[in-house]
Every structure is written in C-alpha cells, then in structure tokens.
Amino acid sequence: MTALTERPAPPRRQALRRRSRREALWFWALAGPNVLLILVFTYRPLISNAYYSTLDWTLGSPTATPVGLGNYVEFFTSGSAGPVLTTTAVFGVATVGGSMLLGLLLALALNTKVTGSGLARAAVFSPYVLSGVGVGLVWLFIMDPVIGVLGAVLRAFGGSSPAWFNDPHLTLTMVVVVYVWKNLGYAAVVYLAGLQSIDPDVLEAAALDGAGPVRRLVSVVVPLLSPTTFFLLVTTALSSLQAFDLLKVMSPLGRGTDTLVYESYLQAFEGSNRAGYSAALSTVLFVLLAGLTLFQLLVLEKRVHYR
Q1: Using an 8 Å Cβ cutoff, are 149 and 217 in contact?
Q2: Is the dihedral of CA 52, 57, 60, 63 positive or negative?
Q3: What is the separation, in whole angstroms, between the first and last Cα of the chain?
Q4: In angstroms, rounded to a whole number, what is the distance separating the alpha carbons of residues 44 and 49?
Q5: What is the C-alpha separation between 164 and 250, in angstroms, rounded?
Q6: Alpha-carbon distance 40 to 8, whole Å?
Q7: Model confidence pLDDT, tens digit, residues 75-106
Q8: Which alpha helices (DSSP H) does 144-225 contain, by range?
Q9: Residues 182-196: pLDDT tens digits?
Q10: Distance from the CA of 171 to the CA of which of 118, 204, 235, 253 falls in 20 to 30 A?
Q11: Which residues of the chain fall short of a pLDDT of 50?
Q12: To 10 degrees, the CA torsion angle through 216, 220, 226, 228?
C-alpha cells in the first residue's frame, strides 16, 4: 500500500494565512489594551457590585453578612420602590422627550442659511460641554425665590416666585428644565447633521407634488430622520437615567428628585452607609438600562428607515 504524501499548500493560500495572522496580531496589539481596561474597570466592578448586593454590609465595616436577595426584597416591599421608580420614569421621559423634541425644532431653525447661524449653533451647543455642577449652581441663583433673577422679574410684574425648593413636584420640574436646557444642544447638533444629510431633491420633489412645509416635515423629513432619532433615543435615555451631578447640586436631599441612581447614592453615602442595599439598587438600575436598550434594539429599530 502506497503511503499518501501531504501536498504543500499553494503559495496564494500560504500568503493569505500569513496575512490573516498578521492582521490578527495587529488587531490584538491595538485593541487588547482597551479590552483589558474595559474588563478591569467596567465588568469587574459590575460583577463585584452584584456580589455586594447580596450582603448586609455597612460602608467601612470590616465584616458583612450574606443575605441573598434580602436587599432586593426589602427594596420592592418597603414602599420606597414605587416613588423611586416613578420619579425615575418621570425624569427619564420628560428629559429625553423634551431634549429630542426641542432639539429637533432648534435644528430646523439652525438649518436655515442666515447671517449669524454659525454663532447661534455654537451658543446652542455650549451648555452641553459645561460642567453639570457649574450649571446647577448658576440655575440655583436664577431660581432662588429671594435673591434669584427669575423671582425679581416675576415680582416686577406683580407676581411671585414659585417655591421651587419646598414643593417636591416643583423641585422635580426645576431639575427637568435645567437638565433639558443643558443637554438640548447635543440633540440639536445631531438632528442638524441628520437634516443636512437629506437629499434636497427629495424635498423638492415633495414640494412639486403639492406638499406644504408641514406635510414635508411630517411625511418626508421625520421618516428620513428615523436613524438619527433612534440614535438619540438610545444615547439620551442611557445618560438621563444615570444623571447625578445636577440632582446632587440642585436637590441634595432628593426631595422630589429621588431617582434610582440618586437613591443608591443616598443609601451608600448619606447617613445610613448601607453599601449592600445601595449595590442592590445599582443592580436594579443596570437591569433596567439593559432591558431598555434591548427593547430599543430589538423592537424600535425595526421601525427605523435606513436609506
């Protein structure tokens, strides 16, 4: 019986293998450090937080008692889950919806070619890059009922300043208004880029067919902006539900602004120092964000019209 001899690979196949190995080495040389940093500083704390949520642990204490799902059971049965989740939902819907709707209207105005439009675009976007702490301090001065600018203007016209800091509903309204003002420029600039990518011939064809400005906006522009709207919905929802700096500065006690992320902070660092309970709230927030993102990617993205 004659032994079969292995034939060497053709030169072209050997060249492809060498190229593939070289590209793989370059990929891991460039992406490897970033992947390692993400694993160490993102996923490792995430797993550690899930473990801490199963402990009855006071921050700073050298000992902790395992309680299983006790912290989750306490949160959902103590009566605080309803108000906290409701405040989180109201804050998220109001800030995301307000930023996107007003951002679209601003983008439509900024898309017109008039003198000074570049300066107006910079002015609209500038609050987004400012520190949330600085913005909160400035707006605290503006809305102060005694020494604030808004109160002085209202008193000049015979009115009076609302009790922004005493009424929890007004406090939440105040924080929502400031958050939308600060992040409005981001949505406006992204929508402006989307508007400028629309083919003018499409709008001209719609106008020739008799569509007015409102009809062109509703039936042509808005559908063509659906990829931009989807992107903004995902990014602004994630950032809104993790908002902290404005809440900390403008409502440090969390009266009316006690969102899930702020309640987690209060439980860990303000008085009770319940690190295990706080970790459970953070895990609940992570699950909500992950579920919301999956819903957006699996359900809402099917309604996006990619060109």
Answers
A1: no
A2: negative
A3: 63
A4: 9
A5: 10
A6: 44
A7: 999 888 899 999 999 999 999 999 999 999 99
A8: 149-156, 168-196, 200-208, 213-216, 222-224
A9: 999 999 999 999 999
A10: 235
A11: 1-2
A12: -70
